[in-house]
Specification:
Rhomboid-like fold
């Protein structure tokens, strides 16, 4: 009779960093929508501000949670939920959280230095970090994966062309910086693990 017992299916919280990040982004996007964007601009967008203000440093990290609307949120979160759990399983929650925080900080600083009149928000820098980091999953010392070269050419090349040819409100520099962060982490982490 025990063989006939049905196995229970349960939902597991398999990627705590990625799922928590997605949940925070969901809440922040809802708050931003409900406030007409005021909450997002005040707390979840990064722009040049006085360095002595604690809010400036909070926004240097928190801007990745803010999105301009539901379409922006869904575009970023769908890629994060697709790639993130695999990366969190491979590299661990601590490493992935650190990579996300560093990517947020670096994109914020670069934006403030080179584009002082422009603010940034959204997780697209992290999306591009994840895309490039994913291409390093089969990395071996002394080799450059062809998948990495192709991904870099397609995604980074597309962002460079978009930055040159279009005048939209998307920060291609954040995408490129995020990709560079992801590639750096992928190279460093995989090189050490193969040594």
């Amino acid at each position: 009779m025990s063989d006939l017992k049905k196995k229970r299916v349960r939902i597991v919280f398999n990627a705590p960093v990625v799922l928590s990040f997605a949940l925070i982004c969901l809440v922040v996007t809802a708050l931003g929508t409900a406030s007409g964007g005021a909450v997002t601009m005040r707390y979840f967008a990064s722009y040049r501000a006085p360095l002595l203000s604690p809010l400036t440093w909070f926004r240097a990290f928190s801007h990745v949670f803010g999105h301009s609307g539901w379409q922006h949120f869904l575009g970023n979160i769908s890629m994060i939920l697709l790639l993130g759990p695999m990366l969190e399983e491979k590299y661990g929650s601590g490493r992935l959280a650190t990579a996300m925080a560093i990517t947020a900080l670096v994109t914020s600083i670069v934006n403030a230095v080179f584009f002082p009149g422009t603010g940034i928000m959204g997780a697209s820098g992290i999306v591009f970090a994840f895309i490039l980091l994913t291409s390093f999953t089969e990395f071996k010392e002394g080799e450059i994966p062809l998948s990495f070269i192709l991904v870099a050419l397609i995604y980074v090349g597309k962002e460079l062309m978009a930055g040159i040819l279009s005048a939209d409100n998307i920060s291609q520099l954040s995408h490129i910086i995020g990709g560079a962060c992801g590639a750096s982490f992928g190279y460093a982490w995989n090189r050490k693990s193969r040594s």
